[in-house]
Structures are given as C-alpha cells and as structure tokens.
Amino acid sequence: MFRILVLNFIFSGITAFLLPTLLLGHQPSGLKIIATVLSKTCPLPDGPDMTIDSPDSILKSVTNPSCPKLGDKQLIQTAILNQGKSSIHAGVEIVVKVDGQELKKKRHRKVYTIQAGDTARVLHEINLENTGRYQIIVRIWDTRFKRILIDTQSGDERLFYIASPQDIEVAKTQLSSGVIVSGKRIITPLKFDPPDLRWESVQVLPKHALRGEKLRLRLNLINAGGDIVQDVTTKVQYYNVKQPMRKSVIAVPRARVMAPGEIITFDLEYILPEDQLLGNYQIIATVDPENEIEELKEQNNAAKSNVIRLSDIKLLLPSDKFTFEENGLFLFQWDSLAFSEFKIQVGVDEKFEDSGSYFDLPQGNRWIADKELVPLAGELPGMAMGLMRAKEKNQLYWRVIGRQASGRQAISGIRIFAITPVNSES
User: Fold this and answer.
1) Which residues pair with 135 in a beta bridge?
2) 206-217: per-residue pLDDT in tens?
3) pLDDT per residue over 66-113, tens digit each?
4) Which of 336, 284, 23 has the alpha carbon at shortest distance from 156?
5) Closest among 341, 316, 325 to 398, alpha carbons compared
6) Whole-prediction pTM value?
7) Measuring CA to CA, how many Å separate 327 from each of 361, 377, 383, 425?
8) Mind listing the pLDDT tens digit for each residue in 176-186?
9) What is the three-class DSSP state of 116?
10) Is the CB of residue 241 less than 8 Å from the CB of residue 188?
11) CA 334: distance to chain centroid?
C-alpha cells in the first residue's frame, strides 16, 4: 500500500520536484501543466505547511551552492502539453509570491499558441531582491485573461527560501549557548553528543481528498544531534480529528543509519479505507516510537501534518467568495470518484434548509453525468438575482448533489459566490 523513496532529482544541474498540477475538471482545452522547474532550489522549506524553525537548516541554506541567494537570478520554466487534436491559443501566467504577498512586477503574462500534441516551454527570469519564502504559481487563462482554465493547486506550488540576516542571526543564537564572563557574553557552541531525531516536515497532498483517492505523504527526518544513529524506526498513523485516540497505522518506515545533520525523505502513498467516516483527518509521524534510542531531546519525536479533508464530492470552481459578472460566463466544476450523476443547487440559504430559498440546475428530475455545468444564457443570473431581491440577500451559496445508480446520494460542502449586476447606466 505504500512505497518509500529517498528522492534526489538532479537533471543537468537543475533540481526539480515535479508535483502534479490540478486540472480543473474536464477542460475542453486539453491543456496540462506537466512540470515547473527552478534553476536554483533549496530543501528548506520542503512543504507549504512547514514552519521555519530549523536553525541548522537555515545556516546550511546560506552555504549550500544549490540554494538561491539574495541578488541571484532565478530561472523558472514551465512545460505545458496540448493533449488535444488542434492548436490552442491560451494565456500563460507565472505568479511570484514572497511570504504570501504577490510581487506583481515579477509576474509573467503572455498568450501562446500550442500546436496539437506539442509541449510549450515558457521561460521566465526574476531577480531575487527579497528574502523570505517564495511561491511560484502557474495559471493557464483564456486569451483575454478573463477565465482561469488551469490553476496550480495549493500545495503543488514550487517553493524556495532565502534567509534574511535576522533569520541567520537568530539561527546562530539558537545553536549556541552563552555564559557571562567579566560582564561580557562569551558564545560557546552547543555540543550535540548523542543523536537528536526529529521531523523537519510532514506534508500530505491533496489537502482535500476524495474517498478512494490516493494520499501522497512526504516526511523529512533529520538527525540534528552529534552522533551517528543506526536502525531508526518510525511509525506513521492517521486519525479523524474528532477521534484523536483512534489511530491507525499507515506505515513503519526505517532508516538503516543516519549521520549527524543528515536528512532522509520518506515518500509514501496511501488510500484511506472506503469505510472511513467523512470529515477531517491528520497524519502523525513518530520516530523511535518505542524509545529505544538515547537522544539529546526525547520530546520532539512526533510531528503532525496539515488537516486533510475527506469527502465524496470536491468543489473546484468557482473558488469561495468568487464574483461573476451578470453578463459573463458562469461555470461550475467539481470532482468525485464515487458518484456518476450530479446536479448543483444555488440559493440564498447558507444551510439549504428552506426549499423556497434555492433552486436546482438542471431543473426538475434531470441529472448530468459531467463534472461541470455551464448554465444556459440568462438562466442562472435571472433566477439567482430574482431570488436575492425577493429574499433581500446580497450573496449566493452553491453545492453539488451526487447520485449513484443504486439511488444513494451525497452532498458536497457549500461555497459562497456573488454576481455583479450590469450597470443600468451603461
């Protein structure tokens, strides 16, 4: 059910971690982002949920030649495959964020023509003028940059890190101890005699998983101590956040030997059993679960992942709190592995309890087999805006109902959206 790999992708001097990019529904375009590569990368941070709290890794990022530095040039290349049978015109956007804030001056936007069966390679160069955690996001738009066709899923962004002078000083302080002699602080290095095993990161994708969908786990284990350790055992478990005492084992990966400062990466794959309750789950990884190894610190052997949401239907588009234009295109997309027929519900009741406050698309007893729906011209805005006026509401809610051939049904979560009316004066 799982596999363990220690990954070290190096191709022509360029390190690349190729994560799958979310293809939103069954896109008529047939485009697919197959890779995003950086000319310089660094193992810290390794995942979107990692906290920068590893002083030894921060200091190593300053001396590691493969890590980007302030003032360097970073080359970004994304490869986009046209799986269709005809050429496609599409807008390609490369977004650069630092500590969550977009650097708009470093954004790349351009329309490309991609022939059938061809792969377009888009190259973008940026000057690294900021310290912090960088996120590289790739989006595919229509040619007018009005509608997103493909968006990088949260957790699949390319990441790298540039430590600030303050980060470096804090890291040095954390790795040293001080004594006062004649009123002056004398810094002496902290000696790590025994090993010290801890998890640098526990990352799980996707964050919103469908029942039956494969989870991908990436766990980085470091020996932050000062001695070699052998026969390191670990235990990886999952649990429902509402039942934290009921843990189930996913895997028990082992490391034969770990030198001081060495990082070992475990890559695992796992599918939650079909009888699992829907809801929120977490992964907890424990090193030396039987406490057989004498360590410098014994209280840092466990780490938890981000929260994973397990459901039968996953909403894709529009994103939460998205705003449509009244005379624009309305598109709804979702995904499901367990259900084959669907309809969406739109209304002003946030709990969908009042049947007079929402309506179905398609209407009546009709269901659709597709996992996307484009309402008929005037159908959605007319009904929705009439409902908002009647109920004196200014925002809408939508959800998806899935149905199996047996008649069993399931309901997705709920998202909010709005419609901007056409200016009556125009």
Assistant:
1) 97, 159
2) 889 998 889 999
3) 888 888 999 999 989 998 889 999 999 999 999 889 998 999 999 999
4) 23
5) 316
6) 0.52
7) 18, 9, 14, 15
8) 644 444 444 44
9) coil
10) no
11) 17
